[in-house]
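INTERNAL AUDIT FORM
Audit reference: QA-55
Scope: verify that the stored structure record matches its stored sequence.
Auditor: D.O.
Record contents follow.
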Amino acid sequence: MSAARTAAIVAPAPVDASAILAALPYPVLVVDVHGVVAEVNVAAEAFFAASRRRLIGKGLAALLPVASPLIALVDEASRHLRPSTARGLDLSTPIAGRHPFVDVMVAPLAEDAGHLVVTLIERSIATMMERQLTHRSAARALAGLSAVLAHEIKNPLSGIRGAAQLLETDASEEGRALTGLICAETDRICRLVDRMQDFGAGDVTARESVNIHEVLEHVRTLAGAGFAKGVAIVERYDPSLPGIPGNRDRLIQALLNLVKNAADAVANASDARIVLQTSFRPGLHHRGAASGMRESLPLAITIEDNGPGVPESLRPHIFDPFVTAKSGGSGLGLALVAKIVEEHGGIVELDQEPGRTMFRIALPIVESEP
């Protein structure tokens, strides 16, 4: 037998299991049937904000929120000797800090019935993708509805307003107050329909390379001279970022809406502050609505304010049409933001913690600059 053939059939060297565990990007713990930690990987150390030495030997009850369902999952998997899973658990603790919701899988070790493997997968990216599909469907439905409303509502409203103005000439003082109310309300409804028509506009199929910092600087100038006068606007830009393929005017419209919301949120704050930030964050991918292709979204834009934030009950629906936390708001501003970002192949999401409200946008970049 030749030396080459002999070399070809030599069995590969065994791989160290601890090296595999360390390489996994998800937090993984090995626990015994009582929930005591026997081993962790590097990602788990980062997740729980504690070293391996501090974690090993601790019970899950000391690491998790009170009465966490994860403890029951471990018990179920150890009793039935089969994997158990749960989606969307909140594992935030005062020590580990605030985490996005987490998907959990607990599985007994095949060669060691006394231990189980606990795998944690943060839901932040997955949840973001699911919400984008909802935003996209809502925006498309509203775009079709706006075209119908423009014809079926605005035309009759013009007739109603004209009739009210004719009645006003012969009306008493009390009657003129009522006709004035009719005119004011018809004007308000017309303005609402005009805003809804924005959802049917904005074709960005003809794209050009847009400098996002020029867009943000224009937005900052408009805000500082108008609705955000007196608010400290902080800029934290990465000047090395490449251009975005898109429509400059539509991007200005989206970012201006976000900055306007931030200014409204901090209107009563003594230390009102808005932070505009850009950064390069590779690793996030998304299937584009127009192209259907899997695209990278490495350019991140964050609009942050130190206002009171969005009420918990509204957060899952904040980008839906007619959902608003502002008194007198129409609920179309953020829905339009979601539509414009989706037109550009990106995603937008709300992230919030005490004292900080952040709208994060992820967008593709121009692959090769001239």
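Auditor finding: record pair retrieved intact. DSSP finds twelve helices and 14 strands in the chain.
Action required: none
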